[in-house]
Amino acid sequence: MIENGPLLERLLEGEFICAVTDEHSFHKLQNAQLVEDLNHFLRPLNRRVAKSEDGAVYFLAYCDLNQHARHQLSQQFNATVQSLLPMLEWMQLVQEAMGRDGALGAGDTIKLQDFESKVVDNQSLIQRLAQLSNDKLFKSTSDKSDMQIKQVFKRIKELGYLYQPHKDRLFYIVTGKVEQLIELVRFIKDEENVPINDDAPEQEAMF
User: Fold this and answer.
1) pLDDT at 77 over 70
2) 169 CB contacts (<8 Å, ≥6 apart)?
3) CATH pick for 80-205 out of 3.30.1490, 2.60.60, 1.10.10, 1.10.1060
4) Cβ(87)–Cβ(188) under 8 Å?
């Protein structure tokens, strides 16, 4: 278990492990015996290794939903929901600007220069970008499209939805964490008592 200590620490810190961010650890977690061993160690902490429905990302979940677990999950859920609408708008903006047929998924690549060139040639996209970048999730104070784009992508990278392989190149890869976001959208759509927002019908339609 000692050799898996760093992986356990990352999971306990709330990291999401996917093939984009850490291919080696991702493939290790596909080993059922290893997951069983990790779960045995995690059980006293009321944790277990979980994965998204499509298996694109691994993370920790609670074993038993006791009062403490429900409180922690409620906080996490509320924080994620607050970022949900701006994230969906960003995904749709990228989808439309880059001419993609479907929603972004793990492993998709985005070249910032290509995205910027598409946006600045379309007044509608410029306006939507300005509105999005002013959201409290991104907190952009610039009125220039290129700076707004950089700030939005910087925040989304910080949130773990994008991975930048080379710090000196504005080239990003969508991580598996986005799959959990999509699953959350589907969950909210299926639960009548947890509506997203009446303002987001187009984003919901992506899924």
Assistant:
1) yes
2) none
3) 1.10.10
4) no
